[in-house]
Amino acid sequence: MLRKSISIVLSLGFWAVGTAQAQENIGGNKTVVQSPVVHEDNAVTIRLAAKTQGEVYVIGNWMSGGKEKMLRDSLGLYYTTPSLSSDLYMYNLEMDGVVVNDPLNVYIVRDVANTFNYFLTKGAQADFYQIQDVPHGTVAKRWYDSPTLGMTRRMTVYTPAGYEQSEKALPVLYLLHGMGGDEEAWATLGRATQILDNMIAQGKVKPMIVVMPNGHVSNAAAPGESAKGQYPINFFTPDVGSGKMEESFMDIVQFVESNYRVKKEKSTRAIAGLSMGGSHTLFTSAYLNNHFDYVGLFSAAFRMNDKVQSPVFSNFEQNLAKQRDNGYKLYWIGMGKEDFLYKVGEDYRKRLDAIGMKYTYRESEGGHTWSNWRLYLTEFLPLLF
Question: Which residues form the signal peptide (predicted)?
């Protein structure tokens, strides 16, 4: 009964507030309640224009686990965060045990099979993630043929401002997502395109093309974006740890180098990835051990399925030694102190130490989060090319 009452009241509340600013003039002028509101001290107020008597909670990624109850005032329900650091934050509401989005916040992002509202606080780091008044690059969804996999697949490609008007060839970064992600993850959750626009405009990063492929090779594209249709999203697809992404990676490189004006030397290619994409990065860069001068591992996993047989894995030690001997300009590793893969990363660094393979190590606060991965990208990009 409580759930039904909440549903009725919220429906009326959302109608009264939400339709006031629709393009079609339905419902007339109503009191406008804004959510969220970012204050000068980076505290943020989230509001819900509802008169329900049930408890409503905020679940946010700035919390150290759990949820926090919304309070009541004359406008309905509200919750104010403590002062937050400069970053992008995601949250949901919980009503009668059901997790929902904030109906007053139209800014929503998907992470694997869940959607979240988000907001950005003020300050230097979040400024990289905002859309600023600077020249903007182009973001394209490109379909490419993968002969190795026997399928046509989709990737996201960023080209910097001025690429279309120039004849200059550019270096390339291949940027890989984590488990459950797809070719949209870095551009949406990672704010990669905003970061690139802003840092290139500030002269902190050299203009480059950034290629964001889909690392789940059993899928042609992001959910709902292929002939597979609208299907339940699987976090752990059958291809995880199979070596097929690494084995087919040259299909991606060859498409890019055949269809974009890019430099084709080792010194002008970089590869980086987070979590599963970090695993793909370390194995791909060793497998193609004379192709990339810049390697970035963000909270990287290692072997994700030790039952699989593949030359990517069986020859890894020899490939890694060849990568060392062939030389490279940067092997960059970032890991959060509270990351559940911390020990995996520690063991991998010992493996590198044992063969005398030089690397740069960056340890940050926090865990296995987009907050860290966005941070790592802003620190990695200026070191390229």
Answer: 1-22
